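Q: Got a minute? One more chain.
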Amino acid sequence: MRSARRRTFYIIFLSFLLSLLLFFLIDHVVYERLVVGPLRAELSALPGIDSVTVSGRGDSLRVIVTPEDDAPLAALYADVLETTTARLGAGAEKSIELLDTRTPLLEEVYEQLRFAIEEAVATGRFTRLTASVGEVAQAFGLDRHAIYIDAERIYLELETDRHRLLAVIPRHRGPTDPARS
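A: Always. Here it is, folded:
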């Protein structure tokens, strides 16, 4: 009698575990096919994108984009943000990261520019920021630099010896901006 109850308990318990495992497996496959796969395909089809990685779950998705060398940063970022928002919805928490080939020199230049960037964001004086970027880039002997400013973000590109640093800085600090630098 006791062994029959014990066996019944084990059967019910194992059935529960297998059902739970099957549920999570099906959930993962469906999410991959209906959300992540199509998003990855849409982003990969955008002009200027070399590769895309999408990871995360639910309302917290991480999108890592490797841009092509000559891709215009501001337009590329806007396209990625628009596509991601259209696929996931405006309320979904998403992190968009641009993969670059930064070097310690480019990191140092970026750190030199952080104060000027933060000052421009705080005061709204972006003309001085453009001049500061040019001065610092010239002082460090960079091959190319570019700064783009729109109503939402500052886009910074620094380049030397075929290495590139890409930064997207929100102009209005808040928890909803997907930019990560």
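A: The chain has four helices and seven strands.
Q: Perfect, thanks.
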